[in-house]
Amino acid sequence: MPVAISRVIADAVRKEKAAERFYADAAAKAAEPGAREFLLRLAREEARHAELLSGRGVADFLASEPPASQDLRIVEFLERRSIGPKASFQDVLIFAIKREHASFSAYQALAEAANDDPVRKLFRRLAQEERTHRNRLETLYDEVVFVEN
Ligand SMILES: [Fe+2]
Ligand SMILES: [Fe+2]
């Protein structure tokens, strides 16, 4: 029997809120104002995803232009690292890239499994958003690594 959609959505909301906290914490630890703003923007967007999953602002969201993103494919070459209190900014970026990639895949799978059209559309758009998050993080990673190495 398929898992009830309300359970799936509640689980997704929990994950979005965890992602928001992750970015907010990372922003609080970021040394550079540019990096802080970048991470805070991600935190705000994850908070918005939780709101959308709770049914707020969905029509406007679906009517808006989807974000453009290009695949850098950096994710495939990165080894996951654990992030403790001494994690470098680079470690945080790698962790976040992996996590965004997992969210993207999860929403794609949910979109395919959804038998309700509006729900499928929402999951599909959320998958696009997470892909854009991954791309933005990959772009930043590329810049940071290029500068540091
Ligand atoms: Fe999200
Ligand atoms: Fe995200």
Fraction in helix? over 70%
Number of helices: 5
Total domains:
1
Shape: globular
Distance, first to last CA: 51 Å
Spans where pLDDT lies below 50 across 5 or more residues: none
**What is the SS-derived class?**
mainly alpha
Task: Report the bound ligands by name, code or SMILES.
Answer: fe (ii) ion
Radius of gyration from CA coordinates? 16 Å
How would the blueprint of this fold be written?
Elements: H1 5-29, H2 33-53, H3 58-63, H4 89-113, H5 117-148
Helix pairs in contact: 1-2, 4-5
This protein binds fe (ii) ion (2 copies).
Residues 16, 19, 46, 49, 103, 130 line the site of one fe (ii) ion (FE2).
Question: Any overview of this molecule?
Answer:
By secondary structure, this protein is an all-alpha fold. It has one domain: Ferritin, core subunit, four-helix bundle (Ferritin, Up-down Bundle), CATH 1.20.1260.10. The protein is 73% helix and 0% strand. It contains 5 helices and no strands. The termini are far apart. The model has no long low-confidence stretch (mean pLDDT 90).
Task: Based on the model shown, name its key terms.
149 residues; mainly alpha; binds fe (ii) ion
